[in-house]
Amino acid sequence: MQRKENGVQRVLIDASTLDKRITELAAQVDSWYLDSTPILVGVLNGAAVFMTELMQAMAIPVQVDFMAVSSYGSSTESSGVVQILKDLSTSIEGQDILVVEDIVDSGLTLQYLLDVLARRNPRSIRVVAMLRKVKPGAIAVPVDLVGFEIPDEFVIGFGLDYAGQFRNLPYIGILSPEAIMAKPGR
């Protein structure tokens, strides 16, 4: 039985569906890099759970690094201003890069990140995103693999948070309006 926490309006994608799709994504990523060892660049904090599950399902060797990029703060809407909070630890020049993203929302954060990485002269850059919102006005940012297309609602769980909470849920859920209203400081 799927546990449903306070603050979750409904479960959008259950744990078993996530597991199955991640296995499929991992097989596709493996096929891209049969002759190289890609650097998986996880976008913190949200992609940590997805990236862990993805690389555990992969058969090829990988390297791992992380960046923290934010355009949200503690809001449910993008601020429109992107900040790098943590940069990569190693050079990516001449390397195959796979950006592992939790969710593509407006496209602004991912487009900014891809521009930054491209200036560092990697051999290739590809993107795998667990979720992409179907959202009018979103930037048409290139994403090579998408786990699930979802409606334009605020989602939580499986690494995604609201004001630092709900990351540990084993599924993707829709945040209830009551949880937004109950946010401390509101």
Explain the overall architecture.
The chain is an alpha/beta fold and 186 residues long. Helix content is 24%, strand content 30%. The protein is built from 4 helices and 9 strands; from the N terminus they run E-H-E-H-E-E-E-H-E-E-E-E-H. It has helices at residues 15-32, 47-57, 108-118, 177-181; strands at 8-13, 39-44, 63-70, 83-86, 96-104, 124-133, 145-150, 155-156, 172-175. A 6-stranded mixed β-sheet has the order 4-3-2-5-6-7, sandwiched between helices. A 3-stranded antiparallel β-sheet has the order 1-9-8. Strand 5 (96-104), helix 3 (108-118) and strand 6 (124-133) form a beta-alpha-beta unit. Helix 1 packs across helix 2 (47-57). The longest helix is centred in the first third of the chain and has 18 residues, at 15-32. The mean pLDDT is 89.
The Rg value, from CA coordinates, equals: 16 Å
Largest sheet, order of strands side by side? Answer: 4-3-2-5-6-7
Overall average pLDDT: 89
Broad shape? globular
Secondary-structure class? alpha/beta
Number of strands: 9
